[in-house]
């Protein structure tokens, strides 16, 4: 598996993955274009010609936010999410950012478990954050 920078041409490849994984709450192509235009740090995980997943990080001088991590169903439970998260955390470290935050669906136990393994701890809940399902988001934070 290789981790490389997410480029504009990856957008078309991730949109079907978004639809499969997130349904009505999927990101649009315009949302990805906006993330890239803002120079947020995005990476993709590939194996051969297959794009397994992607992840993004938005950073300010004081903190970083994991924007998203998505792994194609065929790439799950193979270390893809872990590799993507480690890439984001390495970038936050390179930038000297000490606090990284993220939101994760309260019903996504596998993702919460992954984040906990990297010292993310729950710090709050955003009620009805994910729309249109009205699912709550658990806010998790990591220092260091």
Write the layout of secondary structure elements.
Layout: E1 2-5, H1 11-22, H2 29-37, E2 41-47, E3 50-59, E4 64-71, H3 80-94, E5 99-105, H4 109-117, E6 121-130, E7 135-143
Parallel strand pairs: 4-5
Antiparallel strand pairs: 1-2, 2-3, 3-4, 5-7, 6-7
CATH fold call: Aminopeptidase
Count of individual domains: 1
CATH superfamily heading: Gcn5-related N-acetyltransferase (GNAT)
Overall geometry: globular
In which range does the helix fraction lie?
25-40%
How much of the sequence lies in strands comes to 35-45%
The CATH architecture term is 3-Layer(aba) Sandwich
C-alpha end-to-end distance: 27 Å
Question: What strand line-up does the widest sheet have?
Answer: 1-2-3-4-5-7-6
What does the model show?
It is a single chain. With 144 residues, this protein is an alpha+beta fold. The mean pLDDT is 93. A seven-stranded mixed sheet has the order 1-2-3-4-5-7-6, sandwiched between helices. The chain has four helices and seven strands. It has a single domain, classed as Aminopeptidase (3-Layer(aba) Sandwich), CATH 3.40.630.
């Amino acid at each position: 598996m290789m981790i490389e920078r997410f480029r504009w041409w990856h957008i078309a490849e991730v949109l079907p993955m978004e639809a499969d994984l997130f349904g009505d709450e999927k990101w649009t192509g315009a949302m990805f274009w906006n993330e890239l235009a803002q120079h947020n740090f995005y990476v993709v995980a590939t194996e051969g010609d297959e794009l397994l997943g992607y992840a993004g990080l938005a950073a300010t001088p004081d903190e970083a936010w994991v924007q998203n991590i998505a792994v194609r169903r065929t790439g799950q439970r193979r270390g893809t999410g872990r590799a993507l998260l480690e890439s984001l955390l390495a970038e936050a470290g390179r930038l000297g950012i000490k606090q990284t935050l993220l939101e994760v669906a309260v019903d996504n136990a596998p993702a919460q478990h992954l984040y906990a393994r990297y010292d993310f701890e729950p710090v709050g809940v955003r009620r009805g954050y994910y729309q249109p399902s009205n699912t709550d988001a658990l806010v998790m934070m990591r220092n260091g």
